[in-house]
Request: fold
Amino acid sequence: MWIVGALAALEDEDHHRRVITVVRQERQRLTEELLGLGWVVSESQANFISCRPPAGSAAEAAALLREDRILVRHFPIGRFGDQVRISVGLPEENDRLLDALGRAAERVCSGWQPG
Reply:
């Protein structure tokens, strides 16, 4: 029965267009906010952003976000070395992420150590 619902969702072109519009708008908003916070942000046309924090390491940023129950993917080496991958969410999810990043920046500046 679930396959019927999945097929209907795939055929709903209006819904698909709305989702693409929201992802594009939110990706742009996240990029601008992260740049304003001093992050280095790689250009993206996907539903995620790869970026590096202005202070500390990407691993520290991921650990701080994890404390706020926000999961991002940390890339320690390779092409995306010391970056995090942030999935573009709904506006309220992205607001929560940005709030958490503000708190994380305060903790990094105060000498926080991952534990």
